[in-house]
Amino acid sequence: MACLTQETDDCPTTYSPTTPHFFKIIVNDTSKYNKIKIPTKFVMKYGDGLSNSVVLKVPSGLEWEMELRRYDGEVWFEKGWPDFSHFYSLDFAYWLVFGCEGNSKFLVRIFDRSCTEIDYPLQTPEEEETDEDSISTNSDHDSSDDARDDYEAYSGDDSVQILDEFSPCQRETKGRSPFPCPRPYKENITSSGGKAGPSARAKAKALQMVSSFTSEYPFLKVAMQPTYLQYCYLSLRSKFVKKHLSKTCDHVFLRRSDGRTWRVKLEQYETGRCRLLSGWKKFVQENSLAIGDVCVFVLIDNIKPLFNVIFFPTA
After folding, report:
1. pLDDT above 60: residue 181
2. Greatest distance between any 2 Cα atoms in the chain
């Protein structure tokens, strides 16, 4: 209610928000890869209520534990920040809005260069490391339940019609090939007001084929997530990379069944995370990969290194 004229002296002249906010822009390598500073004025007003351990929460519900570094009146998000930045693919000119909700917890919203809020991955870093990449070797296969979890995370409307069945390969079997049958012809049918997505029937077929896949070579299975298609990188399970590739390996070759090959940069971070970077976007675009599709990467040469890539589409 507005103050009456005679009560002007008792009216507050400013309003203090119950959830104070600040924003930061990714402007250099330090804020992208190492740590990011909390504005000094914010620290002066609210810093006394912050413990050395804080939590960053994103709108999807995931929470990240973070350690603060205090030095000479400045406060930084430091320990835990590199993993947070890598997971959400923070890049230059991205900006983040932090809202302090109390008890050393911040709600963080992330905006890309278009000033549009990003789509947040639904898996935790631990799930990304253990489940999302669905790793298998010839002696250690994923269960159908584990593989099914990958698909359930990316369910869409029933808007894809498979016009041809997955059929057995029609070839002589003088030698075992790591390539299965070609991708089936498919047609996307978009319902009004919705986006074309994998149907239950398509997902079931892909799940069956992925679960039964085997090879004499080490291989891993990766279900395509929105971040892998939008932000130009692919996470690889670090245990697989460390076991089969050298620490100095900085690129891989991805080969399709028709022999076409792509050279892709491999980045092995000190945190243990491994990603395919430059070249991955081109591979995605030229193979028309979609959310929910599964790629099986078969390592047939760990010196070159060369992966044969097998596609199991769901859309």
Report:
1. no
2. 99
**For residue 252, pLDDT beyond 50:** yes
CA distance 214 to 235: 22
Burial of 303 (0-12, 13-18, 19+ CB in 10 A): exposed
Other CB atoms within a 10 A radius of the CB of residue 301 amount to 13
pLDDT of residue 23: 94
In DSSP notation, 178-224 reads S--SPPPPEEE-PPTTS-----HHHHHHHHHHHHH---SS-EEEEE-
Q: How confident is the model at residue 123 (pLDDT cuts 50, 70, 90)?
A: low
Hey, which bits of the chain come out as E strands? Answer: 21-25, 36-38, 53-57, 63-71, 74-79, 95-102, 105-111, 135-136, 160-162, 186-188, 219-223, 234-236, 251-255, 261-268, 274-276, 294-301, 306-312
For the chain, give the mean pLDDT.
74
Considering only 40-44, 60-64, 131-135, 251-255, which range has the smallest mean pLDDT? 131-135
Closest by CA position to 202, among listed 167, 169, 170, 163: 163
Q: If 0-12 CB within 10 Å is exposed, 13-18 middle and 19+ buried, where does residue 315 land? A: buried
Closest CA to 297 of 224, 226, 232, 230: 224
| Percent above pLDDT 70 for the chain | 69
pTM: 0.44
Give phi and psi for 292, each to the nearest 5. 95, -20
Helices (H), the chain: 29, 40-46, 81-87, 125-127, 144-152, 200-212, 226-230, 238-244, 280-286
Cα separation, 87 vs 124, whole angstroms = 9
What whole-number distance in Å separates Cα of residue 1 and Cα of residue 158? Answer: 52
Q: How far is CA 223 from CA 63, 134, 211, 227, 270, in A?
A: 23, 8, 13, 11, 25
Give the pLDDT of residue 4: 52
Distance CA 140, CA 121 (A): 27
